[in-house]
Amino acid sequence: RMMGSLALxxxxxxxSFAAAADEWAEAAGYAQRYGGSKDASERxxxxxxxxxxxxxxxxxxxxxxxxAILSNECAKDEGGKSEDKVSGEVLMNCxxxxxxxxxxxxxxxxxxxxxxxPNPRVRFHIARSLGGLAxxxxxxxxxxxxxxxxxxxxxxxxxxxxxxxKESTLEAILKALKSKVTPWEANxxxxxxxxx
Length: 196
What we know:
Elements: H1 2-34, H2 40-49, H3 59-75, H4 88-98, H5 104-116, H6 120-130, H7 136-145, H8 151-164, H9 170-178
């Protein structure tokens, strides 16, 4: 009877693993097909679907695909000339999906891109995503990004740190937001800082 129960559990787990693999394959396929679509809702859906890849096995691949979608979306503004071509929903879904990773290799990829991506807007969104990760390396990177030369990146880093809600980072956030290079609008970030 015990062997029968174990066989049943094993069979159920096998079905569960197969379903998860199928879900990832479907999400990855959708992202490959629609991640660069002209339709913003398809691009947003692609970014959202990739969250299923944050399962411990596919995180690095999912993060890579999300970074590609994010980079392509940010490039649509053509240096601020075509803001209307950028979908806020795509950007938000990329951030939300990126916040779901916890695998070191995937987090390391985000940390590298946060520091070195040539597009400050991409770095802004990555910094906001890092705020959703329970990682000391993410916090350290965000603290470093507070000194970035681009105000967008500084704002993203401050927002990411605000989301982490660590009292130990509050002074650094306030200092960055009071900097002369940081636009006054960034101070609105501090209206609802949840601390502890």
